[in-house]
Amino acid sequence: MSDLLARANLVDFVCSHKQQSLGVMEKISPDEVGRLIRLLAQARQTKRQIFICGNGGSAATASHFANDLGKGASYGRSQRFRVYALTDSTPWITALANDVGYSQIFVEQLKNHAEAGDLLIAFSGSGNSPNVVEAIKWGNDNGVTTVGITGRPGGELGRLARYPFFIESSHMGHIEECHFLIQHMVSYYFMDGENQS
To answer: Does the reported pTM lie above 0.90?
Structure first.
């Protein structure tokens, strides 16, 4: 009986989490996703660099997004994305964290590579990861177009990014699920949807 009750509790939890996730996903604004697609299309058209960053789970989202744009949405196409995840150079990141400070791991990379007119996309569930916030501040001060994809209330990222994009939840799991869905909707537009327009 205890095993049966345990299974019922597990199933109830999974079903509840799924329903909550779907509810938050339904609130993702198609207009906001469309705006991000347009910003990326413009960066690709003008051959601007695209930088993506995030901390913790959002670092994985940043890396995945760069992979999908850099390979999936570029391979075999006449126009390609010049995209780089600031999360992916482990030696550089650890050297900066050790010698300069963890809050500077993205800023110092941007100083080497970014120019006015480039695009910076930052993911942060809370909007308060210092390394992400510092990157956005530097981008704003140096003519980089900044996009902040966060949750609610959105923290410093939501306040500072030129183009804030909020997920209507404060639950970190649901925020990260939606961030992943957004990067897939955007990437697959360029892979599959663009030719249908």
So the answer is: yes
